[in-house]
Amino acid sequence: MLNMIRMELFRMFKTKSLYVIWTIFAVLMIVTTALTAGEMDAYSLEDRQQNYEYAMEEQESGQVNLGMDVTPPTKPGEQVSVFDMFFANIKGKAVAVFMIIFTILYSTADVTSGFVKNIAGQVKNRGLIVCAKAVCLFLYTVLTMMLFFIVQAVANKLFFHEVILGDKRAFALYFLLQTILHFALLMIVMCIALVIRNNVVSIVIGICLCMNALIIFYSFIDRMLAKVGLENFHMINYTVSGKITLLGTEITSEMAVTSLLVGFAFVAAAVCLGSFVFKKRDI
């Protein structure tokens, strides 16, 4: 198992798309911060108050809208913190989209190139190859989130002229939970890519998850369950993409525990299903 992990790590860090996607991602975060700074400079105090109320209403309502939106929850008169921009970009799924694209390219690269055939014959349990990929993608998730934090801090210094982290304890908890939830999302996408074996379709499905395109389906499930008496049940509260969007800046113990349970449950299910399919399929 350790040899497979080392092999997958070597392959991942030798993949050119890793550095290309990281570079594009970093540039986009800097551009997003520049645009946000330009907008906020043009806003009056009243406009900033409206933006703040809009951002807080979204958090409190627990509703998820279709599409992507980047609105930092900065109080009027206060400087935009790194936490504010980090939260806004995470909630807007800008980070998740780039991570999904790399995950699909990395997960299927050895299958499409035929390299995996040489390895599979030397491994008793081919499902362990999927587990090794999962370990590498966890490291990738952590590194990407750390890169995002560093780039965002630099961007704040460039365009807001100072680096204010915000509530450090809340930021650390939010960072941890979002790292786990994003890893769970990548496991789901990896499983989809291994089952479908079509990069284009897998990327489209992954982006649809980021764009909250399934909220129509979730609403249908909610209505069906309401008819049998489960009126307060909301499907999106128990999905990874839903948790990524709904997790606010003020995290209660219940929200933290629920996010962890949802994240770990989907990681386990996706890895098990991906391993089973990979083990049974003729490669």
Automatic annotation (TrEMBL):
- Keywords associated with the record: Membrane, Transmembrane, Transmembrane helix
Q: Does Transmembrane helix appear among the keywords?
A: yes
Origin: domain of life:
Bacteria
Q: Which residues cross the membrane?
A: 94-116, 128-151, 171-196, 203-221, 255-278
Keyword Transmembrane helix (UniProt):
yes
Name of the protein this chain belongs to: ABC-2 type transporter
